[in-house]
Design a protein that fits this description.
17 helices, three-stranded antiparallel beta sheet, 14 strands, pyruvate-formate lyase- activating enzyme, metal-binding, nine-stranded mixed beta sheet, chaperone, alpha/beta, coproporphyrinogen oxidase activity, 4Fe-4S
Length: 402
């Protein structure tokens, strides 16, 4: 959820979509993302659209946020008409969603169910910080319908957490995972970040070991990106911290892949490893495979049938528009066939299942196979799948193949 919004075309006041977006509606998987834009403090590396209490200003509050989000869910139903759209996944992210009471979060999920209907096996994910939950709140999240929790662990080393300005202690993570499993959650993810200034290979191995000792069935590991405008970027610019090194990042990725695979977690997307196919994040898989989703909340992005739009950023502006009965969308774009093909290749090549060979330039793929970047056997069966070396160079490989 980047903090800057792109330009785009105007959106009608009622949020209505072009006819091309509604063609085939209901034949593609459908999901909801709910953005909760509140944090107690802003981490130094974070560029997401989040607000502390002092940054909110008048016109927005945590207390009324669930009702405002529910108003957008109801608007989504009006815009999409009476098409049968069972919701396969819901992902509540942030920010720190668990700053809201579990009952408020449950009311938003209940509204989605009331308006659209949750699929019988719907995946409903809550993103949380380890310090923002306790045993009681986790238990209540399970009771109000959440099926999966994703914790922002980031690191198990105190000095790394300090650079990232994370406020939990390393020992907090195994405790909350234990509570989460006790509450009846089958699927638990731990998010890790590698490449933080001051982190060593041994630090990274220690974080991976700590994550694995908690026995989640899913781990995400992301390279740190120093985003312009963050406190971390300012520290790097002033020379107080050293920017992440590309070679070190590659080494950390290989360490992660080796340790996670040895523990029985296998990559299914470049930055994600799961113990079983059922443990993979179905919500993210819908993003990566071109499904439809409605993004609720300030700055949230949506996609339906090749039309993409994004909401106004500030919670007060978001609430004001919905109170007036108008769309909170800031702008939108209708993707042409070439862009949709390009985006499909960019996303599906990141997956272990790869992308169809018919979308790619055959000569370029043959060169990539020769360079050890693409697996030869799957390609002969009609799929292009990156090798481990190819994953390390994914952005460049994808550019070459398209």
């Amino acid at each position: 959820m980047p903090s800057t919004l792109p330009d785009g075309d105007p959106v009608p006041a009622d949020g209505s979509l072009p006819g091309s977006a509604l063609n085939g509606l209901g034949k593609r998987p459908f999901a909801f993302y709910v953005h909760v834009p509140f944090c107690v403090t802003r981490c130094g590396y974070c560029d997401f659209n989040t607000y502390t209490a002092s940054e909110l200003g008048p016109g927005a509050s945590r207390d009324s946020y669930a009702d405002t989000a529910i108003a957008e869910v109801r608007m989504a139903r009006r815009v999409l008409g009476d098409a049968d759209l069972p919701v396969e996944t819901v992902f509540v992210g942030g920010g720190t969603p668990t700053l809201l009471p579990a009952d408020d979060l449950g009311r938003v999920v209940a509204a989605i169910d009331a308006e659209f209907g949750l699929a019988p096996d719907a995946e409903v994910t809550m993103e949380a910080n380890p310090e923002s939950v306790d045993e009681s709140s986790i238990s209540r999240l399970r009771e109000v319908g959440f099926t999966r929790v994703s914790y922002g662990m980031q690191s198990a080393r105190e000095h790394v957490l300090a650079v990232l300005e994370r406020t939990h202690t390393p020992g907090r993570v195994p405790q909350v995972v234990e509570w989460t499993r006790k509450a009846g959650f089958e699927h638990i993810n731990l998010d890790l970040i590698y490449g933080t200034p001051g982190e060593t290979d041994d630090d990274w191995r220690g974080s991976l070991r700590a994550a694995l000792e908690a026995e989640p069935d899913h781990v995400s590991a992301y390279a740190l990106i120093v985003e312009d405008g963050t406190r971390l970027a300012a520290q790097v610019r002033r020379g107080e911290l050293t920017a992440p090194d590309d070679d070190a990042m590659a080494d950390r990725y290989l360490i992660a892949d080796e340790m996670l695979s040895a523990h029985g977690l296998h990559w299914y997307e470049i930055s994600n490893w799961a113990a079983t196919p059922a443990a993979a994040c179905r919500h993210n898989m819908l993003y990566w495979t071109g499904a439809d989703w409605w993004g609720v909340g300030p700055g949230a992005h949506s996609h339906v049938g090749g039309t993409r739009w994004w909401n106004v950023k500030h919670p007060a502006a978001y609430a004001s528009r919905l109170a007036e009965g108008t769309t909170p969308a800031h702008a939108r774009e209708v993707l042409d066939d070439d862009v949709r093909r390009m985006e499909r290749v960019m996303l599906e090549l990141r997956l272990a299942q790869g992308c169809p060979s018919t979308l790619l330039d055959d000569e370029a793929v043959r060169r990539a196979i020769g360079d050890g970047l693409v697996e030869p056997s799957p390609y002969e069966r009609g799929r292009a799948v990156l090798t481990r070396k190819g994953r390390l160079l994914a952005d460049a490989v994808i550019r070459d193949l398209t």
